[in-house]
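Hey, I was hoping to borrow your eyes for a little while. There's a protein on my desk that I can't quite get my head around. The fold is given in discrete form, as structure tokens running alongside the sequence. I'd be grateful if you could look everything over and explain what you see. Here's the protein in full, and shout if anything looks odd to you:
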Amino acid sequence: MSVQTSADSRIIQSVFQVLLISLLVLGSGRWILDELKSNESRLFQLYGIRQREAVFVTKEDQLDESCNVFEGQWVWDNVSYPLYTEKNCPYLVKQTTCQRNGRPDSNYQNWRWKPNSCDLPRFPPMKIFKAEEYNASIEYYWAPFIVESISDHATKHTVHKRLVNLDAIEKHSKSWEGVDVLIFESYVWWMHQPKINATFGDTSEVREYNVTTAYKMALETWAKWFKTKINPKKQRVFFTSMSPTHLWSWEWNPGSDGTCYDELYPIDKPSYWGTGSNQEIMKIVGDVLNRVGEHVTFLNITQLSEYRKDGHTSVYGERRGKLLTKEQRADPKNYGDCIHWCLPGVPDTWNEILYAYLLRSHSNSF
């Protein structure tokens, strides 16, 4: 995912980055807003934004450096959550609109992540920028393996047959260079099988690699690109940890034989880890990012998301582009989706955490 801005002054550019990231709360989708030069632009039409005097970020909005936003608990909040509804967010894909797809409960929308020693800042609506002439874009960039693969087309790709070029990244990276804020994430697509077909060097020589070995090689290719192409003085880079799955209920409810289907509450166990999060890959990410250095911010959303067995689309999503039939919904063990998340829901907290980190670099001096 990438966010790119260019403005008449560095001040406007820096503040507007926060606005762009805040729009990510609208949900995951393949959409781009660009050429935002005037009050007639699409963004102005959709949200009624007009040029106005800047209102700067207050001290209350900012997050204390000592606060670990990844350690805390999910608390019930049916007053301020959900942050938005399916009805008023036009960018949600059918894969995530569980209410529209027939999910009868909505409690999963009312759990708020509460760090132990602070509160996540809310998005200050329309109060952090002064809109003048600028070009801007928000882009969800599809590269499920980060490096190049036969799955690089956003819609025309096969789920089961996967072939990854572990040392090839140029096709993607040329779209990332010069971008002000970059957020990387790659995990679920690697985990279909314990082994994966891949090439390294000679693209005609396909080998079968252990997934963890291939993942490490791909991430090292990314790190090499990062060191040679990223300018840390002008660009901010984030790497998000894995999004956990909840495929087997026996992991949080010993003796049961279900899935995430019909789960209504978060897991109430300290430091819960299920098999849906590969801790070896977690270590690989940590090791590679440590070698890259402090110029990449690691967003560890895995642990806090592990508790949310209730937040997946289950039988209220799509399968191969179509909503499940009545017969398929009656068979959640085979057709339930315990990988993707309902929206509004858990991914909104990931965006709030990202937003909190962005606020740390802004102050009233702007």
In short: The CA atoms of residues 197 and 324 lie 31 Å apart.
